[in-house]
Amino acid sequence: MSTIESEQPRVVEKHKELEIDKLFRALVKLEGSDLHLKVGSPPGLRIHGELEPIEGMEKLKDSDTEQLVQQLMTTDGQ
Known about the structure:
With 78 residues, the chain is of the alpha+beta class. 31% of the residues lie in helices and 14% in strands.
């Protein structure tokens, strides 16, 4: 087999936001103070002192939460 196929660059979507970026953007847009990530609950935002789940978001699984947190960490911290 030739190694040319595996050496071809993958197409990357430059404008695709990471999920954590979308959550932080919602936090800023809604003038929230805190982002809450907890397994078994949808992501939540603290807005004017009240914790509100983000509409349309499913409950986070272990793997979802880990993926979101890893997006914030440097490779050394992972």
